[in-house]
Design a protein that fits this description.
Shape: globular
Oligomer: single chain
Number of helices: 3
Number of strands: 7
Distance between the termini: 18 Å
Radius of gyration: 15 Å
Order of helices and strands: EHEEEHEHEE
């Protein structure tokens, strides 16, 4: 990752002062339920978020979540969940998503995890293609919720 052009900012329990700047990437007001959940998870240490910035502009976000109420997504000390991989629209298709996935996989591996999981809506073809190309090659669940059909994918790291 070219660190001369890009800065990955850690947003964890002790550094959440910039949380509201993520509104530049996704609409936190419209998704206030998620924003509140993510903020709480940051405070409790269950979520670690990395922000991809270009010239100090927040353009991408990705998180690791240690524990969820879903055994497919997390297994203590073995599997960690990749949450909210998102890149600002005008920066998509420039390789940022792939850089974030590769970065987060290395972070998870350095923490001692052997697997990372991720969820994707079945109609989100660009994300699905990205995840498969990045090594999420095992389907662990296909289902439907209030937002539509989705699947859970797994990558060994």
């Amino acid at each position: 990752m070219d660190m001369l052009k890009v800065f990955l900012r850690l947003m964890a329990r002790n550094k959440i002062t910039d949380f509201n700047k993520c509104n530049n990437i996704w609409d936190m007001q419209r998704r206030s339920d998620l924003a509140k959940q993510f903020y709480h998870e940051l405070l409790t240490g269950n979520r670690t978020t990395y922000i991809y910035t270009i010239d100090n502009e927040f353009v991408g976000e990705i998180s690791l979540v240690k524990e969820m109420n879903d055994a497919d997504y997390t297994i203590p000390d073995r599997r960690i969940y990749v949450s909210l991989l998102i890149v600002k629209k005008e920066y998509r298709r420039q390789g940022i998503g792939r850089k974030l996935i590769d970065f987060i996989a290395e972070k998870a591996k350095s923490r001692g995890y052997a697997e990372i999981s991720i969820g994707v809506d079945l109609d989100n073809y660009p994300a699905l293609k990205l995840y498969i190309e990045a090594g999420f090659d095992q389907i662990i669940y296909i289902g439907e919720d209030e937002q539509g059909r989705y699947m859970k994918l797994l990558k060994k790291i």
